[in-house]
Write a structure and sequence with these properties.
Strand order of the largest sheet: 1-4-2-3
Radius of gyration: 18 Å
Strand content: 15-25%
Shape: elongated
Number of strands: 4
Structural class: alpha+beta
Length: 163
């Protein structure tokens, strides 16, 4: 019926982006779209974190437990936590100017490193808390052993600041 058998298979790496924090849905996941919020539902922003993004690569077993140790393949944090510097009523232009200054602030390197380490630790801990994920038998068989690259995007305490 199909000349190309790859049409019927899943991609080599399952990729998704989830804007966190998100409410963790109840019940077993039956689709990939239902799985990703369940895996990201335990994530909480570390203290003093501005806008951030992080990608974890891992695999699940049929029962939804982690197979091996997750790896962090990407992380980015804002040089400063903007919540201390900009009030919610500030103009977009003012926030952009302050963000631009923060990107060039060399004293922020140590703080960035501390925030990045906290972000990595929280992401790994959240995956441990959210697994084993509840999966239907069909989804468990489809994702078992396949690499999953899940990107967590946190917009920061002030919406609109981007990592």
């Amino acid at each position: 019926m199909y000349d190309n058998p790859s049409v019927l298979s899943l991609p080599t790496t399952l990729r998704a982006t989830v804007r966190v924090p998100v409410t963790r849905p109840e019940g077993p996941a039956d689709t990939l779209a239902e799985l990703y919020p369940r895996l990201a539902g335990c994530w909480r922003p570390p203290a003093d974190l501005g806008a951030a993004a992080i990608t974890a690569r891992f695999a699940l077993r049929r029962d939804g437990s982690l197979q091996g140790n997750p790896r962090i393949t990407f992380s980015r944090v804002s040089p400063r936590a903007f919540s201390d510097e900009v009030d919610a009523g500030s103009s977009k232009k003012m926030r952009q100017n302050q963000r631009s200054r923060a990107l060039h602030d060399c004293s922020a390197i140590v703080k960035c490193s501390r925030r990045r380490n906290a972000l990595i630790a929280e992401t790994l801990a959240s995956l441990a808390r959210c697994t084993p994920a509840q999966l239907t038998a069909g989804l468990g068989g489809a994702v078992a052993g396949r690499p999953i690259a899940l990107r967590f995007v946190y917009p920061g305490p002030i919406q609109g600041d981007r990592p």
